[in-house]
Amino acid sequence: MTNVLLIGAGNMGFAMLRTWVGISGFGLSVVEMHEAFRERAQAIGADAYADLSDLPAGYRADVIVLATKPQTIAEVAVRSADHLREGGLVISVAAGITIDTIGRSIGRDAAIIRAMPNTPAAIAEGMIVCCASLHATQADRNRATTLLSVVGRVAFVEDEDLMDAVTAISGSGPAYVFYFLETFSAAARSLGLSDDLAMTLAKQTVFGAAKMALDPDADPADLRVQVTSPNGTTAAALSVLMDVRHGLAPLLQNATEAARRRSRELGLPSS
After folding, report:
1. How many angstroms from the chain centroid is the CA of residue 185?
2. Whole-prediction pTM
3. Chain centroid, CA 131 distance in Å
4. Residues of the domain holding 71
5. CATH number (domain holding residue 95)
6. pLDDT in tens, 47-80
7. Cys bridge to 5: 61, 137, 140, 214, which one at CB 3.0-4.6 A?
8. What helix, strand, coil percent values describe the chain, rounded to 5?
C-alpha cells in the first residue's frame, strides 16, 4: 500500500483526489482546514483531517502532495516533513515555488517533483508539466506520472527555469481560452446573433478546431491555410488578427510574459 498525503483539497487538490480514489494500492489521506472541502474529500473515501497535528500518531506518507496556496507552501512543507517516510517523494503543484524552496523547508535531501497542472485536470483533460530534483529517481518520476496522468497528459522539463514559462502557457492558458470564448461570443452578438446561438457557435467552433489540432500529424499553420481561401472571409478576419503590431501574436506575447513574470515573483522569498 502506497500512502499518499494530500495537503490542500481545494479545486486542484480535489480534482486530483477524486481520480486517485479509483487507483488500487493507494491509501489516501487529506489535510484541509476548510470544513466543506474536508467533508467532500471524506465523501469520496479519503481520510480527512483539519490539521497535520490531527494525523494518527506515527503516520508516514510515501508521497506528500502539496496543493495549498503558494504563499503557504514553505510553512506547510516544514510542518509536513516529519510525516514523510525516509526515501519518500514530495510533489508540489504550487505556482512559482521552486524545488530549492521546498527542499529547504523539508529540511533534508528529499526527492521533490514540482508540477504545474491546469484546471482541465478537473475533467481529466489537464496538461501537467513536471520538473524533478536531483534526488528524484526514475522510480519517483514514474510514481508522479502514475498519480498525475489520471488527470491529463504529463510531460517533464529538465530546466526548472522553464517552469515559469509553463505556468504562463498551460497553467494560466485555460483562462485565456475562456476569455476568448467570452469575447468571441460577444463579437457574434454584435453581429446580430442571439445570446444562446452566439455562445454555442463560439464553444463548438473552438472545441472542433482544437480537436482537429490534437491529431499528432496536424500542424495548426497548415490547418489555418486549408480554411483560408484567398481574398475570402477568413482571410479578411486574419488580416486583422495577424497584424504584426496590433494583432493576436503581440498581444499573446505580452500577456504570457506578464504571467511568466508574476510566476517568478511568486517564487521569490518574502521580504
Report:
1. 26
2. 0.87
3. 13
4. 2-163
5. 3.40.50.720
6. 999 999 999 999 999 999 999 988 898 899 999 9
7. 61
8. 55, 20, 30
